Amino acid sequence: MKFVDRIEEKKRLETALSGESPSLVVVYGRRRLGKSTLIKKVLSSSDVYYMADQTEPSHQVALLAKEIGLLFEGFDHVIYPDWYALFEALNIRTSERFTLCLDEFPYLAKSSPELPALMQKLVDSKKLKYNIIICGSSQQLMKGLTLDSSSPLYGRASQILKLAPIHIRYFQEVLECSAPQAVEEYAVWGGVPRYWEIRLQSNSLQEAIMYNLLNAQGTLYEEPYRLFIDDMRDIVQASTLLSLIGNGANRLSEIAVRANKPATSLSGPLEKLISLGYLEREIPFGESPRNSKKGLHKVAGPFMDYYFRFVVPNRSLIELGRIDAVMEEVSLRFNSYVSWHWEILCRRAISGQIIMGKRYGLASRWWGNISRDEQLEIDVIALSADCKSLLVGECKWSEDENTERLLRILSEKANKLPFSQNKKIVPVLFLKSNKKSADNIFLPDQVLGMM
């Protein structure tokens, strides 16, 4: 698969590595996001890239010396007793600046706890002649090593990059597909480059799902559990919580009842899953994230959402090889599932955009009671920068919608909102397809174009 996006990240890496003096650069993020690929794009033949593993420190030192020996002849002919001896010897041998990348650095730090303090000493000495990149998939450990004020490396890095998923518009470019197809594909694979590579090995979305996800031998069948190993001791609890939330238990009280545990015991684990990017807490438009009691927990990211919504509940059938039966069920619910992620994309697209002459702020969803007997839900809602207009949107992932009827109902709902008084209501529709064009109707091409 061709290398796409990462324009800003690549530029920042190149800037840090070409500064006036040698620098320490940190790159981290969950697995499969292309950290190693990005780093290799900025390294040259005169740099050293080393992928650590979980072996003894002496073995790791010898392996790194061997890699360095490819650049400095004879470097690996010496036995180095520890990391300090290796780094000092490398500093002596270096005449021109190069970059040393230590990938999966948490493996090294686990087996050699003294290593971060040693690297601090090297950086603080101001005598270091080469750049160092440390990279890792364990978000918790990498943040602890570089962002925790008690860590030896705190404040030493000239650049810290946390990689996020790649933008959907690049997925459309990679697959060479239409915008509606890109939305459906993205709802399954998300913005993870490795999943895109796997998807490209199949001829269709359905084939890729059946071969890689709904198959006990599938490449991605156990994927979430592999990811959890990097940052969690209790994988069972994490997968249980994600499974419950993925299948409709969104409030803390509901999660606690289904998990058969007191709500107070789940706050910590849920917060950890949020900090690692596996969950998110959604609150209604206009409410304070800190004070709102209406927050709903959602599985974060399309791939994890798809997995815990469709794969986990069907594992018994999948293990029996009843893939066709599972696929039939998934297909019946697929449009509804895509619709949820279509909503998310629409909210992102609207946020900060100029719509019909006005710029709008962060778009959210709203739900709540407007009377004792009536509840409302608005898919997309955003306040204009001048606070005079309220954009309200309805998202549909189906064909041949009656747009006039949808707009009328949406306007009626919007006028009942408790915060709509003295605001100009701007109703808009986000549709999969529509035969007529209008300023207040947005289709996939337009939504992806605004992102």
- What name is given to the CATH topology of the largest domain? Arc Repressor Mutant, subunit A
- Output the structural class: alpha/beta
CATH A-level architecture of the largest domain: Orthogonal Bundle
Number of domains: 3
The dominant shape is: elongated
Give the averaged pLDDT, no decimals. Answer: 93
Our count of helices gives 20
**What is the highest CATH level, the class of the largest domain?**
Mainly Alpha
- Neighbour order of strands in the largest sheet: 2-3-4-1-5
How many β-strand stretches? 14
Sequence-ordered SSE layout with sheet pairings:
Blueprint lengths: L6 H11 L6 E5 L6 H8 L5 E4 L5 H13 L13 H11 L5 E5 L1 H7 L3 H10 L6 E6 L2 H8 L12 E4 L5 H8 L3 H11 L3 H7 L5 H8 L10 H6 L6 H12 L5 H8 L7 H9 L3 E4 L13 E4 L2 H10 L3 H5 L3 H28 L3 E2 L2 E2 L4 E6 L5 E9 L5 E8 L6 H13 L8 E8 L9 E2 L1 H7 L1
Parallel strand pairs: 1-4, 1-5, 2-3, 3-4, 12-13, 13-14
Antiparallel strand pairs: 6-7, 8-9, 10-11, 11-12
Helix pairs in contact: 1-2, 8-9, 9-16, 9-18, 13-16, 18-20
